[in-house]
Amino acid sequence: MAGSVAFYASRWREAVSLCETAETILREHQSRSEWELMTSHALSLASLAYLGDLRTLRARQTELLAEARRRGNLLAAICLASGVANIRWLASDDPDEAQRRADESLEPWREDEFRFPQYLHLLACVNISLYRGDAAGAWKRLKREWPRVLSSMSFQVQNFGVTLLHLRARCALALVTSTGASAPSRAKRAALLYLARRDARLLAKEDVAWASALAAAIEGGIAAVTGDRARAIGELAAAAKAFRAVDMTLHAAAADHERSRLLGTDGGLDLLRSAEATMIDAQVSRVESLAAMLVPGVPA
Q1: What is d(CA 17, CA 3) in angstroms, rounded to the nearest whole number?
Q2: Which of 13, 91, 97, 186 makes a 20 to 30 Å CA pair with 285?
Q3: Gap between the Cα atoms of 249 and 68, Å rounded
Q4: Cα distances (Å, whole numbers) of residue 86 to 188, 201, 267
Q5: Predicted model pTM
């Protein structure tokens, strides 16, 4: 219970520690609850993803997925391979494997109503499309699933609501910056920016620390695509600071990476090198792709 409280309060590092303690206690009791053990594992991996501790995430995910298969726990499989924890394969620049894992884990639940497995699968799939640079595909999937998202009452859980608002705003910004055949019309571009602004305002109203950091990153992207370079730089700097305050190191580095592109030769090179070093140290293979997925909006 304490691990869940820490997780939903965006205290990721504390959540990892408490979940590890809970797992030890549960394993010591032969009559342990399968549900409680699975919940502890899922929250721990999600917290590691938010922390950007991809080294530990990879090791634990591999171990726990193998254990879930041995136990025949199908729900554990999607909790551990999809959702935010799916970033492990994107960080390794393997979107095909990320998609395979997400689809494979959803298979037993494919015909169900929109519930927790479908939420996790949607989050993984949209992130995969954004990582690939397929903003149009990401938006199409999200738009198709949004009525089911609303009917599922996912927004009643604050963490899910924050995640979904941020996901939609990121999709909107990514699509606004698309070029070529997927570039939106002027009217659609205005509608997408309106939606991103609204979602950023809604995020800023949430009473959890990470939501305000996400909101600042979205505001930075909006300012960047509308040509307000000074405001974009300020918002992304604020976002990076807010991300670090909640130990979201990878998101902070992504915000710094995108801010460095706006700064250019005006102090951006050192910031770029620092952001790249942080992400490479976390074993991110394609820094540019992951940074743009996490913090979209800065035009190429």
Answers
A1: 8
A2: 13
A3: 29
A4: 30, 27, 34
A5: 0.94
Going from the C-alpha of 233 to that of each of 194, 241, 257, 262, 292, the distances in angstroms are 20, 12, 11, 7, 15
Residue among 222, 224, 220, 260 at smallest CA distance from 239: 220
CA pair distance 277, 257, nearest whole angstrom: 10
Instruction: Name the band, by pLDDT with cuts 50, 70 and 90, for residue 100.
Output: very high
**Residues 117-162: tens digit of each pLDDT:** 999 999 999 999 999 999 999 999 999 999 999 888 778 889 999 9
Give all domains of the chain, ordered by start, each with its CATH number: 1-81 (no CATH), 82-294 (1.25.40)
List own/partner pairs for 215-219 with CB under 8 A and 24 or more apart.
Answer: 216/242, 217/243, 217/251, 217/255, 217/294, 217/295, 218/166, 218/169, 218/170, 218/173, 218/297
Which regions of the chain does DSSP assign to beta strands (E)?
none
Give tens-digit pLDDT for 228-280.
999 999 999 999 999 999 999 999 999 999 999 999 877 789 999 999 999 99
Cβ neighbours, 10 Å, residue 132 = 17
Nearest to 173 by CA among 165, 181, 256, 202: 165
* DSSP 8-state secondary structure symbol assigned to residue 107: G
